[in-house]
Design a protein that fits this description.
This protein has about 170 residues and is α+β, with helices and mostly antiparallel strands. Helix content is about 20%, strand content about 45%. The protein has a 5-stranded antiparallel sheet with strand order 1-2-5-10-9. The protein has a 5-stranded antiparallel sheet with strand order 3-4-11-7-8, with no helix packed on it. Strands 6-12 form a two-stranded antiparallel ribbon. The termini are far apart.
Length: about 170
């Protein structure tokens, strides 16, 4: 995905992270591309806060975050190592696109506070979310099972076709 906001860090070298945040019966994906690593994260729904634990071997750090507005939105407040931080922010009706540019190698903590949480979800979103969370006893999702069923069905059709051809030859 190329942002409409200009050249992206992802056009250059960067580490890609996809953080799956499960909250309120939903799973949201926060995407990052950065020249630093996000080794852990925490989401606190009561505080409307996403915390990223960053480690970097570089002094000059650059990163991009894409946060779904349904997860966390509104007016943001940012803290880098407990100091207020003002990154560049762009957004559209679905995501916030945040560009981080900071100095400091080693471990860093980046906190994002929003004023809205689980905002704008429709009934359709909630139904799709519940359907995607149906799981079987062995841990497979229903979608995985349909995939296996389709594969088994394909092989059954091929086997039946081969058997019919062999019987016709006799």
């Amino acid at each position: 995905m190329i942002p409409v906001y200009g050249q992206s860090l992802s056009d250059a070298t960067g580490l890609v992270n996809r953080l799956d945040i499960q909250t309120g019966g939903h799973t949201f994906e926060v995407k990052t591309v950065a020249n630093f690593d996000i080794y852990d994260f925490d989401f606190d729904s009561s505080e409307k806060k996403l915390t990223l634990y960053i480690t970097s071997s570089l002094e000059n750090n650059l990163g991009e975050l894409i946060i779904p507005l349904n997860l966390l939105g509104g007016n943001f407040t940012f803290y880098l190592n407990d100091q207020e931080f003002l990154p560049k922010i762009n957004h559209n009706e679905k995501i916030s696109f945040i560009t981080l540019n900071f100095i400091g190698s080693g471990n860093n903590t980046f906190e994002i506070f929003g004023t809205t949480y689980l905002d704008g979800l429709t009934e359709k979103d909630e139904i799709e979310q519940k359907e995607s969370q149906i799981s079987l006893q062995n841990g497979e999702t229903l979608g995985d099972s349909f995939g296996w069923l389709a594969l088994v069905g394909f092989f059954a059709v091929v086997a039946a076709f081969i058997i019919i051809k062999m019987k016709k030859r006799k």
